[in-house]
Records
---
Amino acid sequence: MAATDILLLERLVPEALAWLEARHSVEVRPELATDASLLRKSVYKAHAVVLPRKVVVTREFLDFAPMLKAVARMHAGTDNTDLEACRDRKVRVIQATTANVRSNAEYLLASLLLLYRRGIGSSLIGDRHADIRLGRELNGSTVGIFGLAPTAHTLALMLHSLGAKLIGYDPAVHHTAPLWGRLQVQPVSLRDMMSQADAISVQMMYASRYNGFVNDKVLAHCKPGQVWVGTSRSLLFEPDALARALTDGRIEAAMFDGAEAGFASRGSPLHELGNLFLTPRLGSHTRESRLRASWYVAHRIHETLSAPQHGVLDSLGTDAAPLDRMDPVIR
């Protein structure tokens, strides 16, 4: 079997792909993402691999890839990659973490506007004679920024320009941190954010210790009629608690992007709720973000294969960080 320089399970834009193909041997095999056995055989002689979110990199995965020098992702988040194992094997982890910042911020803004004017959604699905619903304006409303992930930085600028008042909370960022001032977001306690905000935007970075973080205790303090939008992992939410808040009027409506499988499937307390809207990771899927991510990944892979790096993690816009200093919730 001939060695493959780069194995792509996620497609790059044509220009970036052509650029890589002019310099390396490249195989595009998206079907391998759903065939673990065939993937193990195909990755055996690969020097670099571009993986979708659902393919998890473990020590066992790396055992089947003895020649691997780089694992690349088109998205942010390292919970699907064993960073310690990659460090031990001297495999560079490449992530286009900020390629999707703008697109996710625009998704959150669009979601807020749609939930504030839900009559627009009725028209979009073809109901031309829907009842006229009294909408709201972002100007003058209070928006809670739940988590200071990079997306929040761009979103804050957008919301300021529309006249919204911003308050915020992040369990990993101290209320005296200069970042709050730079973003013009007033830091408050979680309870105060819940009770004061007309809308909540959730872009908090996920870590296992935050599983079910948004529970009955947190949602008990919601300002009645709140709307929620989010791009964070749905594991942050306790489904039963969220269902109760969506049912009793504490949360008027919610729109979340990229919920995990089963979050609102049949049997979940969220399944039948008509005021919960889920989208399949649309936030990061724009032409522009795909272009940024593709070129970043292409250049970093070429750089790695041409002159192997010693770092384990590389992200768009940041330097590689030593593993013992990395915390997935500290920005």
---
Amino acid sequence: MSKLRLGVVFGGQSSEYSVSLHSVTSFLRQIHADNYEMTLIGINKNGHFYLYNGDVDSIEHDTWENEETCVSCAWVNGGIMPLDGSNKVIELDCVFPVLHGKNGEDGLIQGLLELMNIHYVGCDVMSSAMSMDKEIMHILCKEAKIPCADYICLYANRENPTFEQIQEEIELPWIVKPCNAGSSYGVHFVNNKEEFESACKDAFFYDGRGKILVEKVIKGFEIGCAVMGNEEIFTGSIDEIEITGGFFDFEGKYEMKGAAIYCPARIDEKTFKEAQELARKTYIAMNCCGMARVDMFVTEDKEVILNELNTIPGLTATSRYPSMMKEAGIEFADLIDKLIELAMQRTIGAC
């Protein structure tokens, strides 16, 4: 029986380029490689696509891009073609985009793959784009009666409310963050006007579409839930983040500075089940398929409130999504197989 022809895409132009390299390194070391005929496709920081034939260690140390191991390539219907004069097309049954942030989670790579008639792992164009934009996510989840933090959206090219006007609507402290970014880039805990102005400037820097959110700080702690599926939806375990700072920032997420993660979360059974149900409800409201990690808060009164949704969560062996699925009984390598299987079950362009 022929092996499934799997393309694995990594790198990219987003601020989360390094996160992608760490994710794909772990992914390649964990995958049941014998099950697939794999083609590695790297994207450098300038957006150039390469067929990559080197080793995993070079990806991990970001030394992968060189003439010996890389060949420029172009997408064609049904696969990818190296630009080496051979005119040979490498056909692909499915692509696993191990990309985070801009051009990876926002529906753009998904749209490219749909145009090329190639199956891909994860959410489709619409659900990826909606989930990436935190303002749109808030609007849709509010319509679905999913509890979220109070917020105001600010725009780079419009007249916005002043600090004082926002304060009349939302009590300090606030979280200021880009609408279209991940890994806590550009996210700030704000207590006063001086902090607000510098936070807005940085958040706008990281948002590619000129939108940022000012959100009310939820008094409590953060939890998450791994979700997987198309028509049938499976919710994994719940994890809990313990932090010493104002929020779970980049160093907390990837270097565990001032943060600890507990899986399963140290919450009672009732709150655990409520969180799984809210994660499931959010997944459905955002029209997700394949996979997503739903991040939430538990308040001091044990109310579960949505924070945000990640359609391509971190995929190292110790990342939150694989860890929650492992706690639910699915090992990382088996999880990869299942996600690819879910992608192949879908009609291209449909969740």
---
Amino acid sequence: MGIMRIGRVSLRVMDMAAAVKHYEKVLGLKKTMEDKQGNVYLKCWDEWDKYSLILTPSDQAGMNHIAYKVENDADLDALQKRIEAYGIKTQVLPEGTLPSTGRMLQFHLPSGHDMRLYAMKEYVGTEVGTVNPDPWPDNITGAGVHWLDHALLMCELNPEAGVNKVAETTKFATECLDFKLVEQIMVGPDNSIQAATWLSRSNTPHDIAFVGGPRMGLHHIAFYLEDWADVLKAADVMAKNKVKVDLPPTRHGVTRGTTIYFFDPSGNRNETFSGLGYLSQPDRPVTTWTGDEMWRGIIYHTGEPYEAFTDVYT
């Protein structure tokens, strides 16, 4: 019962043609439809629902909303009661509010981010099908990412003013939405300030993450690749297409994943992420990184601070 996995992210882009080219040619997503308002819908080859990424035309980059898929439609009613009882207002959006999607439960996280839950989206199947499938399709382009894996949301953190939206949002996600806290970064006196958290609703190291910053926003959306060789190939694809790379191929201490960070043409940060690192079993203890080793958790190979990584986001 309840939330199963990430379902989609809706991003604002300032140049639709450039954005579509980036997500198709560099990452390897496939455009599945476009609506009358000019919004473009895309999916990865290993996803079975009709879309996981919505690009909306705008004069400013950033995220419109993030959505997670629940197991049954009745879960929406049960979760609405829990969220309302927690003190957060909700709204039920009728079927058809978004194309090929059933009704949605909309609310704002304590951080201010727009989150939606849904149970139904049109099934179109993966590129390789479900009967005697090949390991990958012949029409892969670019990095050939498998699926939308997770998102990292920036939350206001100002300990001097008594503001910690990371802790507030993590508390809501664990107590109300049944996410499991998998890893965290604790900073400040006696490492008492929860500055970043990674949470899971499946067996992966994270389905969502929250990191503290001066204001709310989107740090990145991440797409899954199979292994380190695929990460290196993705770096080659980015170089060939002159993509602005933020953090070249490396490993995280947090999640143990291998990664590249880069930007789409509007400035929305992307990640290609590989490696489960570990299974997020229900009884797995929480991993804690302390303030003095925070950058080792983020950039394991060097452990050197890279301030733009946490200061620059949409």
